[in-house]
Amino acid sequence: MNPPKSFFQLLAVALFLLPGVLPAQQKEIVTFPLRGFCIAAPRPADVDQFVKFITEELVPRKVNTLILRIDWNYQFVHHPELRDSVALSKEDVKKMVWACKRGNIRVIPQINLLGHQSWAGTVHNLLRVYPQLDETPHVKMPEKYSWPNADGLYCKSYCPLHPDVHPIVFSLMDEICDAFESDAFHAGMDEVFYIGDDKCPRCGGRDKAELFAGEVRVLRDYLAQRNRQLWIWGDRLIDGKTTGLGMWEASLNNTHRAVDMIPKDVMICDWHYERPDKTPVYFAMKGFKVATCPWRNPSVALSQVEDMRTFRRDATPEIKENFQGIIQTVWSDTRSFLDGYYGKKKDPADKGNTPWNCFRTIY
């Protein structure tokens, strides 16, 4: 065998031979209880390519949890009026489920609940079909959306106290969890700016933290009756002013106190994309299991992986398992991610900051 000639080759060999350096790090990330990947569910035409990605990319990297953002991309039987015009069939879903079963990957479907009922100038299916569920019906969708705006409109929310909302939501949760044979459900619940609106006849004047916590408890309790776990994003449970994290990655509308009002078996997905903020410690010390969620910045993601490793290493036995691991998030459609991952599109302006580079870096 020819000896390595370059400095980088020599460095790689040296790192491999040093006991406890590279092999130990690789072993530690492999032993995170949760090695996750979160992406929008593919459209029907992309299911086979996504199954290939599961089999050839997720499984060899020992990814063990796949969060699929479904929303309205499924041919719901009990509420067909809420389907997208092109949506996954039960057969499409089974292809993904079988691929994950073969690879020992847990599948968790997501439907955005409470917030994210609109985007830019488009009202999503729930409020489009059932406008009476809107928390802020007086806020009209603009012809041309811009932020910031006078109405404080980012995304619409449904009213958590409307008597008609939960029968619909529960049916959707049951059907999608049954289809994906899942023992958990991700409800989203991030970036909820509209809650407890003063003009809402049911919510006006109520404590926003209690309203948010109430919705978490309602969803959690319903799932628990079916031996399923609730997962949510963690931003609404962080005080955006005290931490300096602001209104996006944390709350400036006083929902953060809900962290002390919800059951401790709710799984927290703690997302930070531009800085490796140490908020997993906050959630773990509050008694929650938590995973750190990077997006597209590989250097930030590496710091988050190292932090999670350190948190687990230095924690007391009582709190160690609250630090569950890492979830790589993708906030584009599936086809765009796969095109980037397989080199079918390139954006030099990103300078390497892409979700596919981030995924390759942490796994």
UniProtKB/TrEMBL annotation:
GO biological process: carbohydrate metabolic process
InterPro entries the UniProt entry points to: GH (IPR017853), Glyco_hydro_20_cat (IPR015883)
Hydrolase as UniProt keyword: yes
Chain ranges of the Glycoside hydrolase family 20 catalytic domain: 86-332
Record bears the keyword Hydrolase: yes
SUPFAM superfamilies for the chain: (Trans)glycosidases
Entry keywords, A to Z: Hydrolase
GO molecular function, one term: beta-N-acetylhexosaminidase activity
Signal peptide start and end residues: none
Family per similarity comment: Belongs to the glycosyl hydrolase 20 family.
Protein name according to UniProt: Family 20 glycosylhydrolase
